[in-house]
Amino acid sequence: xxxxxxxxxxxxxxxxxxxxxxxxxxxxxxxxxxxxxxxxxxxxxxxxxxxxxxxxxxxxxxxxxxxxxxxxxxxxxxxxxxxxxxxxxxxxxxxxxxxxxxxxxxxxxxxxxx
Amino acid sequence: xxxxxxxxxxxxxxxxxxxxxxxxxxxxxxxxxxxxxxxxxxxxxxxxxxxxxxxxxxxxxxxxxxxxxxxxxxxxxxxxxxxxxxxxxxxxxxxxxxxxxxxxxxxxx
Lengths: 114, 109
Fold this sequence. Notes:
Distance between the termini of chain A: 37 Å
Oligomer: heterodimer
Distance between the termini of chain B: 41 Å
Number of strands of chain B: 11
Order of helices and strands of chain B: EEEEEEEEEEE
Number of helices of chain B: 0
Structural class of chain B: mainly beta
Largest interface: A-B, 23 and 19 residues
Radius of gyration of chain B: 13 Å
Helix content of chain A: under 10%
Number of strands of chain A: 11
Largest sheet of chain A: 7 strands, mixed
Strand content of chain B: over 45%
Order of helices and strands of chain A: EEEEEEEEEEE
């Protein structure tokens, strides 16, 4: 069955380290998204991509980067991890086209920055 | 800009009916989603409304009034497994979804 996966599921790192969170989907969806979820803020969009080699900044993109070298993967990199980036990170994907805008979420990665 | 308001918490009784309201302000409306999220899990899609009116899907129904900037999610015959957060979300332009902070629903026996 097609799915969307994230790895690792849990990560503890130290301030200043570079961290990469993986997201892989097998639905062949063009659109992929990264969110963070914190108490009191709901889901906030970090970066998104509409296809290979396309990336765009969301509302909370500072300190994060993404790259899209193929349809299936959108890794999220924290260049220099900060304690404020402790959060749960969700990846999502959707088809493109009229009426095909439902996003399907991966299981999430819980990141702790010490 | 866009703004979404929904209650932070609600409590209901098993077997009863509960209505979770969502009001929104947006410069351009393209659709409204409801997602369910159990604690520690990913959000899962429940419903999507584009036109005014009620859409029913089993025990869950979603209502939309575009002129009033208002939606609600109606859950009937509540079960303990319905204890979760319910996220109201706007479909903005260019395939993006803007999420509200969610309503945490607790079901008591």
